[in-house]
Structures are given as C-alpha cells and as structure tokens.
Amino acid sequence: MKELLFMLADLWMIFAGFRYGWTFIRRYNNYLLGLEWMIVATSGSNFLLWSLLGGDPDSHLYDIAYFFDAFSRSVGITLILVMGLMRVTHRYKPTPAADIAAFALAIAAGLYLQQFRSHELHLGPATFYVVVNALTTLFLVYFVRRLWTIRAKGPAITTALATAAGTAIAVIYDFFPIPGDDEYRTVFFTLALATWGTQLFFYFRSYRALHDHNVATGAEPAANEPSAARA
Length: 231
What we know:
Elements: H1 2-28, H2 31-52, H3 60-89, H4 96-112, H5 123-149, H6 153-175, H7 186-216
Helix pairs in contact: 1-2, 1-7, 2-3, 3-4, 3-5, 5-6, 6-7
C-alpha cells in the first residue's frame, strides 16, 4: 500500500507539472513558470523510474534525481517561482537573457550541491534550503494577500495552505525524519510529492485568478487561447 500511494503521489506531481507547465507557456507566455513546472515533472518522472528499477543509490538515475531536487529547492521553486509570479503581481516581464540567467544559476546550484548527495546531514546546504524556502514564503504571503484583496478567497486560502504544507516539508526534509519510516523514506516522499504536486496546481490557479483580474481591469492584455487552456 505504501508503494502504491508513493506512485500515485509521484504521478500526481508529474501530471500537474507537465499539464500546467505547458499551459503557462502556451496561454500566458510565462516561460519561467512553464519550464520550472516541467522540470519538476521531469524530476518526478526520473524519480519514479529510479524507484521502479530498485532504488539503487549508485545508479545514474539517483544522481539525476539529486540534481533535479537541488535545482528546484535552491533556485527553481524559490527565485524562479518569485520571478514568474511577479508577472501578475508587478507586471514584471523579464528579458530572455534574465530567463536564461535564472535557469543557468539553478543548473550551477544543482551541480554544486551534488557533492552533498550522501544520506548524512550536511548542515550548511540543509540550512540554505530552509532559508531560501522561508524567503520565498514571505513573497507568497504577499501573493496570498493580493489574491484576498481582489476577493479571490478560494485561491488565496488554497495557496496559503499549500505554501504552509510546502514549508513543513522543507523543514522536515533534512532535519526531522519521520519516525518509523523505511530506509527509502517512502512515507516522507509520498507526503512531499503529493504536496509539491498540489503546490503546482494551486499556484497555477492563483496565477490565473490574478491574471484574469488584471485583464478585467485593463492592466494586462488577454491571454492566448482563452478557451483551450482552462483547468
């Protein structure tokens, strides 16, 4: 049963990443969020394959999984997320050079953090992940406030809850192993994958709510293919 729940959680994250990542690109021309969502989905696909093939820590698939994990925890679902959401909060439209620089930084961070891939606690990287998550959460609190201000109370509440769950996962990840979990941390990763997939889903819906409000008030042009990309 544990393994089935793990796979379902991973498949949920994969679906949310590819489905809404593509929508971010096709409908909103937001390559920062679109590509990051797809990177998370690709990470989940690789993680699922690694698990199905036995979960060998010496496998190249494990190296790839650790890289993707470090990529998103350090820069992807932190700096890139904030830059992407600023499209609807501050009308911020980064140049292609800024997009490339953000992903290049994430790649560099992922490669650098590879050296800490052992199962032992590395206090420096673990603390870094929690700190950047906390800083991102501060922006997301503002993002929720913006949603509440435009009376998008449903998206505001779900985004707040998803962010709180994501912060809890970030803290538990390195510092608080779940008692009774197995050596592969199946229970933890089931909770983490389900949470991350839910974050991708709710952040997309909240982005859409703010975008639609901006369009309605004349602050932003309408999106591409409005009827084909509704979730």
